[in-house]
Automatic annotation (TrEMBL), chain A:
The keyword Transport applies. It is found in: Cytoplasm, Cytoskeleton. This is Dynein light chain roadblock. Residues 10-99 form the Roadblock/LAMTOR2 domain. One of its GO terms (biological process) is microtubule-based movement. InterPro entries: DYNLRB1/2, Roadblock/LAMTOR2_dom. Acts as one of several non-catalytic accessory components of the cytoplasmic dynein 1 complex that are thought to be involved in linking dynein to cargos and to adapter proteins that regulate dynein function. Cytoplasmic dynein 1 acts as a motor for the intracellular retrograde motility of vesicles and organelles along microtubules. One of its GO terms (molecular function) is dynein intermediate chain binding. GO terms for cellular component: cytoplasm; cytoplasmic dynein complex; microtubule. The gene is dynlrb1. Belongs to the GAMAD family.
TrEMBL record, chain B:
Keywords: Cytoplasm, Cytoskeleton, Dynein, Microtubule, Motor protein, Transport. The keyword Secreted does not apply. One of its GO terms (cellular component) is cytoplasm. It is found in: Cytoplasm, Cytoskeleton. It comes from Sander lucioperca. Its main location: cytoplasm. Acts as one of several non-catalytic accessory components of the cytoplasmic dynein 1 complex that are thought to be involved in linking dynein to cargos and to adapter proteins that regulate dynein function. Cytoplasmic dynein 1 acts as a motor for the intracellular retrograde motility of vesicles and organelles along microtubules. This is Dynein light chain roadblock.
Length: 102, 96
């Protein structure tokens, strides 16, 4: 199992992503859909986290229903106003998913 | 109809494209380059996923709407372009 990044590394990565052009927000949620890190205000975070968590679960089960050996690695939801990118953690033992609002 | 065929042919000839399915708003496939069984399976499951994605976007902001969806998995990538009356689904192997 790969070592978990240190708190400092996580902060670094978030800062790097946040400084990209157009990034509106970053949220990290655990497998229960509870936000554990965010660059947005509380209300938006809770709203996004809850709704997107459900969508990711649906996307993941869609992929697995088509092929049980397959698994979701990334999801991009493009809308008129923005794009939401979701990276579920590849490590099966880890329990975090990142959402990036762009 | 000829334009549709043209477009499908153009997409199908891209490297890595494994299949194209067009479904109507009820999720019924109306055009496909895959076999029947796969088509029905993909169409049904993806239709539900798109409905979920669309309502997620609208729940966050009722003025917003879904314009595209990309589902990347270990084995392939599924791209869905929803339209008013149809969805276009393209399955590709992104490493090709």
């Amino acid at each position: 199992m790969p070592p978990f990044p240190s708190q400092a590394e996580v902060e670094e990565t978030l800062k790097r992503i946040q400084s990209q052009n157009g990034v509106q927000g970053i949220i990290i949620v655990n497998t229960e859909g509870i936000p554990i890190k965010t660059t947005l205000d509380n209300a938006s975070t809770v709203q996004y986290a809850g709704l997107i968590h459900q969508l990711v679960m649906k996307a993941r089960s869609t992929v697995r229903d088509i092929d049980p050996q397959n698994d979701l690695t990334f999801l991009r939801v493009r809308s008129k106003k923005n794009e939401i990118m979701i990276a579920p953690d590849k490590d099966a033992f880890s329990n975090k998913t990142s959402f990036l609002l762009y």
